[in-house]
Structure formats: structure tokens, C-alpha cells
Specification:
single chain, 620 residues, Serine Threonine Protein Phosphatase 5, Tetratricopeptide repeat, two-stranded antiparallel sheet, two-stranded antiparallel ribbon, 8 strands
């Protein structure tokens, strides 16, 4: 059964369930036990669990007025009330009857498997997937609220309450239960599946996910006292995940590519995202698959310039200037300072020269070659008057997002994109290990440096005389600053940055001398206008498409945007200590409030401290 058939089964089952309420059972005894005696029919049930649990392309939205990218510093958007500090209670609804419904379906399957006649690997494979997704769904809530009711038993459908009035487990209890489920998943899941079932979860995915959870739990958001034992647990879990994933065949994908006049570097970072696991991509660990003309999304249409899409909306994911300058130079040095100024070249207009090759695959900048719609020589212009659309539809920052964009997709397929969403990849495992290694072993951790060296070497950064790929050429930056910036550029637009900012308290606290807090920062410097200088527009039109890339800068002057939404200051509300939380009732975005509907149905569920009538301590 090929992955196409797996997705077809998901699609078919969705129709089947909606017509026959196959999963929406009021009486668990109504499920035909024979389903669980046959691996193929049991997998059909499991397939729907995948569809319910895995996020769509771009990741799960947390708040209604901003994507994961928009509520971070990756873009210049300031539309979300989360960043402005005005988010009302009840707007974060991840803890819901719908989330617990998926948990209920998982627990129903566990109950049915108690009497299943399946044995051996067939039985283990089913159980392993169930253990994984029970942890996956609960972690979605724990990372946002702290402890939640951790449901390991089936809740009676006829109950007046979706979670039978179960109280919240403490955060530490939830972490223990998550680890218990994921350890069981690791012990039951295979190292690999057959190639036609590549999208199923493996033991490596379970280990990597546990490593991610324990990294979060050790981070300042959850660990204000900096308990070193949490960092030790995170380090050991991520070391195990790295070694297990390596043993099972996961690795950084080779992204080598020829240098041409259009492509100035020998690495193409986007190969990772447009090459499916089924086509030999060894980096993909956990993935939500999409298939041409069968299961798709509209990413290509949402990020490409309006001159291509003819959209009535401004493109999304326009990179902020702050992200643009975060990419290292090609020698590995970091080209920004504590004032968020670009210091990588003598002239700010040369910002795009001699950069980390990942920059060119992530950011479409003024004058770059950006092949789209079958035009291999197409160039992207973002200077004033240079785009073929009205000013309210051009990039808000002067840059376009190039990450995930597949030039082979054109025409009607732009709104039917079949690029997979990679939820976990091997590079994240290395980054998780690097961060926990520096925290646990100290600034000189060789394990930490080795992980970053592997990532930078693959990226195409120069090794330098010492073979550290520029990592030790930044003495003003601490290793934690370096690793967090490395996460920023490597994982840009992968739905990780908001959570990194939040768990490290980077909205409210300086990470170090050079990476300072985001609160009070106005994004006026995160957008630039490019205006012609020394030449008329008509004369420039005659030569612009023949100009070498390394001369583009000489024709333009850059000015930071200073009006409009970019001048609003970030005011993320976070209470970072247990003592302060005890006296706070005005809101805390590090641990969100429980929606009123949940507490009305379940009086045993107490509101989170930091919010009105809060009683539950998320630090415990």
C-alpha cells in the first residue's frame, strides 16, 4: 500500500465517519472487535488519528489573528494582539472538547487492543502509534497551559462533561506521563516502515519528540530556578534521540548544487523541503504528507509576489529585516550587534553579499534571481516603482519568503501545493542536543559544538582555519546566543520560532549581551524601502535584468520604514517567576488561561495562575 493509498484511506474514512459516525461512537461496545484482529483494518482507524493530530502546513494556529510565523519576529506583522499584549481571555482554545475527542479515540483503540488477536510486530506497530499520538495531543496543551488533565482512560460519551470533570495534573505529572507514553512508543515502534508507508511514525520520531519536550521543560519558561537535573534529562534524551536516529538511517540531507550566474552558492537549502521522504530525503523524521491533486494546501499562492499570483491580498511570511541580518556571513561570523544593526559589510547596501547559503534559499531580495512560472531568468525587484502591482500589495518589508517555494509548481497548482509539512527533521534533533549540551556541560561542550559544526558544514559555511565553521569567531556571543540564532536561521518559517522565544523568555529578558529582549522593540527597522539612486527609472529598466548580482547594491539607497504598523512596540505579557505569578491577575502568555467553556463543564479544572480567579500553579 503506497503512501498515496494511505492518504486515500484517510480521505475515504473521513467520508465514512461523517456518514456513519464510525469514530463518534456513543457506545464503545458498538465497535466491531474484528477490526482490531486485522492489521489493515486497524490501520484504517489509526490513519484517521494521524489526520486528527498532525498539524496542517504551517503548524497549528494558536491565536485567531496570527500564524505561528506572524506571532514571532520572523515577519514584520504586528496585527496580532498577542504581540501587542492585548489578547483577551479565551482566545487560545487548544485545550478543548475537540482536542480531547481525539484523545478519546486513541484511548478507545487502546481498550479494543486489549482483546485484539494481533500479535508480534503487527500488534506492537498499532500500540506504538497510539502511545505516540496520545503524548502528541497532550503536549499540544501542556506547552501552552502547563498541566492539563492527562487522560489515559476512555471517557463515557454520554457524560455531561468532555473530560468527566477530571482535575488538571500538575505540569511535572504531565511530563512524567508524556515520557511514559513516549518510552512505550519507542519500545513498540519500528525503526523504519516499508517505503510505501513512509509517513508513519517511527521509534526515532518518538525519541526526537521526547527530546523536544524535555528541552522545553528544562527551558526558563518551565524552569525558572534553572534546575540542572532538567538540563541533564534533556541532554540525555536528545543524545539518545540523535544516536537512535543516526542508527536508523536519519541524517542531514545533502543539498549540494552547481553554482550558476543565477544561483551564487553551492548549496540549495530548499532541497530539504521540496524533496519528499519517499524520494530519498533522509532528514525527514515526522511528516504530514500532501499529494498532487489529492491532498494539498495553498502555500505557494500565499507567499509568492502578487505580480505572479494576481492575489487581492498582500503575501504572507515576508521576512523581517531582523531575520535577514540574523543569517551569518559565509565565514560564520554573526553580522549584527545589540542594536540590531547590520555590521557584516562596510556598506548596509551590500547586506546580501557573502552570506550563509541558507540566506539565499530563505529570502528573496531586491534584484535576486527568483525563477517562477517557468521563467528561469526571472528576477525579483522590490524597489519603489519596480514591482508590477499596487503599493498596498507589495511586501511589507522589502523581502519575500523563498523557503518551501518549489519553482516547478505553477499556474493552478499554486493553490494546490503538494509540498509536505515536516514537523520534525534531523537538524532539529542536532539543535536540541546542542542547546541542552551547552546548558548541561557548559560553554565548552564539544558535543554542542559538534552538532552545530554538522549543521553549518551542510549549510555551506566556510570551515575556517580552526574547523569550527565560524562558531568561535563570535567572542561577543555566548554559546547559547549562538545556538538560538542558529535555530532561528535553520528553522525559519518552520513554526518553531514563537515557541523558542517563549520558552527562553526572550520576549521579556535579554538572552545575552547581543541578543536582547523583544518587548519594547518597535519593528520600524524590520522593513526597508529600496529607491533608485544615480539613474533614472527608464534607464534602469534597460539594464536591470542583465546586471551581475554583485553590482545591484550600487544602484539603490535603503531607508528603514518608519510609519504604519511597524512602529508598534511588542508588549508580550509574560510572568517568568513563580513568586511574581502568585500576585498576577492581568494575564500571562507563558501559560495561557483555560477557556471558560471548559471550566463551566468541568468545575474540577482550575484556572491558571496569572489570570483572574487563577489557582493552578503551572510551575509545579
Amino acid at each position: 500500500m503506497k503512501i498515496k493509498k494511505i492518504v486515500l484511506y484517510i480521505f475515504a474514512l473521513t467520508l465514512f465517519y461523517s456518514c456513519n459516525d464510525f469514530l463518534n461512537v456513543k457506545d464503545e461496545s458498538a465497535i466491531n472487535p474484528a477490526i482490531w484482529n486485522n492489521e489493515s483494518s486497524a490501520e484504517l482507524y489509526i490513519n484517521n488519528i494521524y489526520d486528527l493530530c498532525l498539524p496542517g502546513f504551517g503548524g497549528d494556529k494558536i491565536v485567531p489573528d496570527g500564524s505561528l510565523n506572524a506571532i514571532s519576529d520572523e515577519t514584520a506583522s504586528m496585527d496580532s494582539k498577542l504581540l501587542l499584549g492585548t489578547l483577551e481571555m479565551g482566545k487560545v482554545g487548544t485545550i478543548s472538547a475537540l482536542t480531547y475527542q481525539s484523545v478519546r479515540y486513541i484511548n478507545i483503540a487502546f481498550d479494543e487492543m486489549k482483546t485484539s488477536k494481533l500479535t508480534g510486530d503487527a500488534r506492537k506497530n498499532i500500540l506504538g502509534q497510539l502511545f505516540f499520538f496520545r503524548a502528541f495531543q497532550h503536549w499540544k496543551m501542556v506547552e501552552l497551559y502547563g498541566g492539563v488533565p492527562y487522560m489515559k482512560d476512555v471517557v463515557d460519551y454520554t457524560s455531561s462533561d468532555a473530560i468527566t470533570n477530571a482535575p488538571r495534573n500538575t505540569t511535572s505529572e504531565c511530563i512524567a506521563l508524556l515520557k511514559e507514553d513516549l518510552d512505550s512508543a519507542i519500545n513498540n515502534l519500528p525503526a523504519v516502515w516499508t517505503s510505501d508507508q513512509y509517513a508513519r511514525v517511527t521509534r526515532g520520531a518518538a525519541a526526537a519528540f521526547l527530546g523536544r519536550i524535555l528541552l522545553f521543560y528544562a527551558s526558563p519558561e518551565f524552569n525558572p530556578s534553572n534546575d540542572i537535573n532538567r538540563w541533564k534529562n534533556a541532554y540525555e534524551a536528545n543524545l539518545y534521540a540523535r544516536d537512535l536516529c543516526t542508527q536508523d538511517g536519519y541524517a542531514l540531507m545533502d543539498i549540494s548544487t552547481p553554482i550558476t550566474d543565477q544561483w551564487p552558492v553551492e548549496k540549495d537549502f530548499n532541497k530539504i523541503f521540496i524533496t519528499k521522504k519517499s524520494d530519498g530525503n533522509p532528514e525527514v523524521i515526522l511528516v504530514k504528507p500532501y499529494l498532487k491533486a489529492l491532498k494539498y494546501h495553498g502555500y505557494e499562492n500565499s507567499v509568492r509576489p502578487v505580480e505572479i499570483t494576481n492575489s487581492k491580498d498582500r503575501p504572507s511570511n515576508c521576512p523581517s529585516w531582523d531575520l535577514v541580518i540574523s543569517f551569518p556571513m559565509k565565514d560564520g561570523t554573526l553580522p549584527f550587534n545589540s542594536s540590531r544593526k547590520f555590521i557584516g559589510n562596510s556598506d548596509i547596501n551590500k547586506y546580501y553579499l557573502d552570506r550563509d547559503p541558507r540566506f539565499y534559499a530563505t529570502v528573496a531580495y531586491n534584484g535576486c534571481y527568483y525563477p517562477l512560472e517557468g521563467n528561469s531568468s526571472r528576477r525579483q525587484w522590490t524597489y519603489t516603482g519596480g514591482e508590477g502591482t499596487t503599493s498596498d500589495l507589495i511586501s511589507l518589508t522589502g523581502f519575500y519568503c523563498r523557503k518551501y517555494v518549489n519553482p516547478d509548481i505553477s499556474g493552478d497548482e499554486r493553490d494546490k501545493t503538494y509540498t509536505d509539512w515536516i514537523e520534525i527533521r534531523y537538524a532539529e534533533v542536532l539543535l536540541n542536543l546542542a542547546e541542552s549540551a551547552f546548558e548541561y556541560q557548559g560553554d565548552n561542550s564539544q558535543v554542542g559544538y559538534d552538532c552545530l559544526i554538522d549543521i553549518r558544514k551542510r549549510a555551506g559555511i566556510e570551515p575556517g582555519i580552526d574547523g569550527y565553521y565560524g562558531l568561535k569567531s563570535n567572542p561577543a556571543f555566548t554559546p547559547i546566543e549562538i545556538v538560538m540564532n542558529e535555530r532561528r536561521v535553520e528553522l525559519a518559517f518552520e513554526g518553531k520560532r514563537f515557541f523558542d522565544l517563549r520558552r527562553r523568555n526572550m520576549f521579556t529578558n535579554d538572552l545575552g549581551t547581543n541578543i536582547i529582549k523583544l518587548n519594547d522593540w518597535k519593528k520600524s527597522g524590520s522593513g526597508y524601502t529600496f529607491t533608485l539612486t544615480g539613474i533614472t527609472a527608464s534607464n534602469f529598466d534597460l539594464i536591470k535584468n542583465t546586471l551581475p548580482l554583485n553590482t545591484i547594491y550600487s544602484y539603490f539607497k535603503m531607508n528603514a520604514k518608519s510609519t504604519g504598523p511597524l512602529v508598534k512596540a511588542i508588549a508580550y505579557r509574560a510572568v517568568t517567576t513563580q513568586a511574581d505569578l502568585q500576585t498576577t491577575t492581568t494575564g500571562n502568555y507563558n501559560f495561557f488561561d483555560i477557556p471558560e467553556g471548559i471550566m463551566t463543564r468541568s468545575p474540577a479544572v482550575k484556572q491558571t495562575l496569572g489570570w483572574p480567579a487563577g489557582e493552578f500553579d503551572p510551575f509545579k
